[in-house]
Design a protein that fits this description.
By secondary structure, the protein is an alpha/beta fold. The chain has 14 helices and 17 strands. It has a six-stranded mixed beta sheet, with helices on both faces. It has a four-stranded antiparallel beta sheet with strand order 2-8-7-4, with no helix packed on it. Strands 11-10-9-12 form a four-stranded parallel beta sheet, sandwiched between helices. It starts with 21 loop residues before the first strand and ends with a helix. 49% of the residues are buried.
Length: 437
């Protein structure tokens, strides 16, 4: 299947595009979940009463696809508890009372890297995950024996409102350059492509200047079309290579890392300080003064909103992430986590979803899908419990970007239906596989 150039033109609303990131002081307490990544939750390695510092490991990865977790403040662990997260399940969390000193862990030092294995181990220790939203443990991506022909740095940032990646590219370009040089050296990467949508001229300018100083690095200016930052879409638009259904970027010789992820890698190589803070865009129609804020991981959303200036209207919906793929937040007590790139608060008018009507078979959903999926066919197969027909629709390619729902004149919950279809199909495939053993 060749991907199309389809997608949707969403309003940019990059209100914070020219705003430098403001660093937030440590809150009185942080609540740091042990699951801020794809894979198994980490296991708490501290207990109530323990003294910790900024960068102290408080959670140890559990298994290959997992991630270490570190304290974002100095202070005292008050308790280990369970918290309900947006996925609808409880995860362990470490609650720390800050002493306000922000003292770095005295054991921290820059990693010594002499080869590829050292680099992967350093990434493992850093706790860095994909910071564009997915949260995939970064060291796992680079734990491959396959040659990496292209490192693609995702600076597309195609969702409305969000500018945290853009401002990171502008303000942390030295860290990005350091990481790129190290990755090229230790992973024998000859080609690095930084993909940025054309509506970010400042980031493009800074990254082009960076590219001039490093052989093999180019900047690809992309059309401002959502979902330009989707991994498979980005690989296709930067290299022309197609990642087939069920395959990964490395299967076509590519590794994709978010621009903020790359900046964090550079910072860790330089200082040894693991991932403890996150640049977050605070915006939306209920926000009094939109800002980019560098937040200690584990800070309650309510405190971040207060630091940013509070609300001008009562928020009726708050999202982790952007309006297209973001996840609705049930409580402002929930914390900023590793892969929080934005928290958006919307007033009542902007929170109401129109009433759905019957499908009119217009084909807009299929015409705008970047992977050419036909959602009505998938919905029909799902209703009929016809798993073979569902499999033929290529529904597992769906990345839940929301283009289909965005253009649907009937305002049908297409993304939710696609998600259900994927779950049903995967369960069917799993059952068949086990039955054939």
């Amino acid at each position: 299947m060749l991907f199309s150039l389809n997608g949707v033109h969403v309003p940019h609303r990059k209100n914070t595009a020219e705003m430098s990131a403001l660093k937030m002081d440590s809150p009185k307490t942080v609540t740091i979940p042990m699951s801020m990544h794809i894979g198994k939750p980490s296991v708490p390695c501290v207990k109530a009463g323990d003294k910790v510092f900024v960068g102290t490991k408080i959670g140890t990865q559990d298994g290959f696809v997992s991630s270490n977790v570190h304290s974002s403040v100095s202070g005292t662990v008050t308790k280990i508890t369970d918290i309900l997260v947006v996925g609808g399940h409880n995860v362990p969390a470490v609650v720390i009372e800050s002493d306000g000193e922000n003292t770095p862990d005295p054991e921290i030092k820059a990693p010594q890297i002499n080869n590829r294995e050292d680099f992967v181990n350093a990434l493992k220790e850093s706790g860095i995950v994909g910071l564009g939203g997915a949260g995939f443990p970064t060291y796992v991506k680079y734990s491959t024996d396959k040659p990496i022909e292209y490192l693609i740095i995702n600076g597309a940032e195609c969702e409305p409102y969000i500018t945290s990646d853009s401002i990171t590219m502008v303000e942390k370009s030295e860290n990005i350059a350091l990481a790129i040089k190290a990755l090229m050296k230790f992973f024998d990467i000859k080609n690095v492509i930084i993909g940025i949508e054309k509506n970010k001229p400042k980031a493009i300018s800074v990254m082009k200047k960076l590219a001039q100083d490093i052989d093999g690095v180019t900047v690809k200016v992309l059309k401002s079309m959502y979902p330009q930052g989707g991994e498979k879409v980005l690989v296709y638009h930067t290299t022309g290579r197609t990642i087939m259904e069920g395959k990964l970027p490395i299967d076509v010789g590519c590794v994709v890392s978010n621009s903020t992820t790359i900046a964090e890698i550079g910072a860790f190589l330089k200082t040894g300080i693991p991932l403890t803070h996150k640049c977050v865009t605070v915006d939306g129609s209920a926000i009094a003064s939109p800002k980019n804020v560098i937040v200690p991981i584990g800070t309650a959303l309510s405190e971040v909103f207060e630091f940013a200036g509070g609300f001008k209207e009562e928020p009726h919906k708050v999202l982790y992430g952007g309006p297209m793929m973001g996840i609705s937040v049930p409580s402002l007590d929930l914390p900023v986590i590793k892969n929080t790139n934005a928290i958006l608060a919307f007033n009542k008018k902007d929170s109401l979803y129109p009433k759905s009507t019957a499908c009119i078979s217009c084909g807009s959903c299929a015409n705008h899908c970047p992977f050419g999926i036909n959602p009505p066919l998938a919905a029909k197969a799902l209703r009929n419990k016809d798993m073979e027909a569902l499999e033929k629709t290529g529904i597992t390619l769906c990345m839940e970007c929301g283009c289909c729902s965005y253009v649907c004149p009937a305002k049908l919950p297409i993304v939710q239906n696609n998600k259900l279809a994927k779950l049903e199909l995967l369960e069917f495939q799993k059952t068949n596989k086990e039955g054939n053993k």
